[in-house]
């Protein structure tokens, strides 16, 4: 068996072993297993069946991660993306007032379009054309947005009277338990404990049970919930509408830049980028993302994307697709442990969201703030995401301001033709929304 793994995944060529890859796969799963709790929680607020979303989340993660391992031979794991599920629920469904079936249809179309764009190498071209500073800013902006959601759900911040936001009730049980969860999780991270986020959520849940805020699970192992309430539930009645175009447009770009940032960031940490700073087999990696998104939409979940938590497995020595295969199998195994995941309260996931936000904002250190034509677009990208409650808005402001600043400062040649096209498309998006 080890000979098969060696030949298929080229372990010696990547200076790794079966044992190292297995441990890395377990580590990656433990650091991102929180998505099995957080994704159903977020999508249920859009009106989707929480149990069904749990099952779909596990299956979609399995599919996307297996394809990444087999097709691209990278140690990256995929799952319904944080930020993208927030955009699905809080912007399209709650913010715009559309049904979750409408949003799910946009995700399906996104996956199909990404398959076409990946096959024609358009996505690779966009990946290579994006300014490095904006790639880092997108990740940081999503991190702040996610952290804000966690703070709001925990009651640590609230809508103010006469002001947009105010401090919440810090002494409430949910707030105190969330604060405990944050501090305990960070302590585990400082101690380099694999799976710190998941263990932090479990510890927070245990404390809430001890305090009488939550109840013990009635069982440890159970039958996975049926996905029938959300399986293939599409609404094609508005497929040619302006509303669908705008929702699809936003999903496409949010997913594209989220995936790009993660792939480049994690690959850089693992020294997988070539001498030109590009990612070999990027096309295959993007195919895994596109197939995962398409399959996930059919099953009934928001966009599937590459997870930045893959960096945890890379840090443990994972270098090939065998790491991804191990992670994928653990997602499948998690299906029978749904009763345990189901009792984890919202404020336990809130602490996880805040910590994940911390992880995602670290890319801000790589932005050149001494060059204001780089700094201002990056700043606008980051700040507009939480303040406008939209990831897409942050990307729009970043790309448009980047293009305009470079032009007016006489440095237009630094802007790729692809970025000029993106800026024009975003401006057209603003115009279209103005006449909706």
TrEMBL record:
Q: What is the protein's membrane topology class? A: Multi-pass membrane protein
Please state where this protein is localized.
Cell membrane
Could you tell me the superkingdom of the organism this chain comes from?
Bacteria
Keyword terms of this UniProt record: Cell membrane, Membrane, Transmembrane, Transmembrane helix, Transport
GO CC entries: plasma membrane
InterPro entries noted in UniProt: Azg-like, Azg-like_bact_archaea, NCS2
Determine if Transport is one of this entry's keywords.
Answer: yes
Q: Which GO terms describe its molecular function?
A: purine nucleobase transmembrane transporter activity
**Alphabetized Pfam families for the sequence:** Xan_ur_permease (PF00860)
TM segment ranges: 20-39, 51-78, 98-117, 137-155, 167-190, 197-216, 244-266, 286-308, 320-337, 344-364, 376-405, 417-435
Q: Where is the signal peptide?
A: none
Q: Of which family is this protein a member?
A: Belongs to the nucleobase:cation symporter-2 (NCS2) (TC 2.A.40) family. Azg-like subfamily.
Q: What is this protein called?
A: Guanine permease
Query: Which species does this protein come from?
Result: Parvimonas micra
């Amino acid at each position: 068996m080890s000979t098969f793994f060696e030949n298929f995944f080229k372990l010696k060529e990547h200076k790794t072993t079966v044992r190292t890859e297995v441990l890395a796969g377990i580590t990656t799963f433990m650091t991102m297993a929180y998505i099995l709790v957080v994704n159903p929680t977020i999508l249920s607020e859009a009106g989707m069946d929480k149990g069904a979303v749990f099952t779909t989340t596990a299956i979609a993660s399995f599919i996307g991660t297996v394809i990444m391992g087999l097709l691209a031979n990278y140690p990256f794991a995929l799952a319904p993306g944080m930020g993208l599920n927030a955009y699905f629920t809080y912007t399209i469904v709650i913010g715009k007032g559309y049904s979750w079936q409408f949003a799910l249809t946009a995700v399906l179309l996104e996956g199909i379009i990404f398959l076409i764009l990946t096959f024609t190498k358009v996505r690779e071209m966009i990946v290579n054309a994006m300014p490095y500073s904006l790639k880092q800013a997108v990740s940081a902006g999503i991190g702040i947005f996610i952290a804000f959601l966690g703070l709001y759900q925990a009651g640590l911040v609230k809508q103010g009277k006469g002001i947009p936001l105010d401090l919440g009730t810090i002494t409430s049980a949910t707030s105190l338990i969330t604060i405990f969860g944050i501090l305990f999780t960070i302590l585990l991270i400082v101690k380099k404990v694999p799976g710190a986020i998941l263990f932090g959520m479990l510890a927070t849940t245990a404390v809430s049970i001890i305090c009488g805020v939550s109840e013990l699970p009635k069982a440890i192992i159970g039958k996975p919930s049926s996905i029938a309430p959300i399986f293939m539930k599409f609404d094609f009645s508005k497929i040619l509408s302006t509303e669908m175009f705008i929702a699809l447009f936003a999903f496409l770009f949010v997913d594209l830049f989220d995936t790009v940032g993660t792939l480049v960031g994690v690959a850089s940490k693992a020294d997988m980028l070539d001498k030109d700073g590009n990612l070999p087999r990027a096309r295959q990696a993007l195919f895994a993302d596109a197939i995962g998104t398409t399959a996930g939409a059919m099953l009934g979940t928001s966009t599937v994307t590459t997870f930045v938590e893959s960096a945890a497995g890379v840090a443990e020595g994972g270098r090939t697709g065998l790491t991804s295969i191990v992670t994928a199998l653990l997602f499948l195994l998690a299906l029978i442990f749904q009763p345990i995941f189901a009792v984890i309260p919202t404020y336990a996931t809130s602490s996880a969201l805040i910590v994940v936000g911390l992880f995602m904002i670290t890319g801000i250190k790589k932005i050149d703030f001494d060059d204001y034509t780089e700094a201002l677009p990056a700043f606008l990208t980051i700040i507009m995401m939480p303040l406008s409650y939209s990831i897409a808005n942050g990307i729009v402001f970043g790309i448009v301001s980047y293009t305009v600043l470079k032009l007016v400062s006489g440095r237009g040649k630094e802007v790729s033709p692809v970025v000029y096209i993106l800026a024009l498309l975003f401006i057209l998006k603003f115009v279209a929304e103005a006449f909706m």
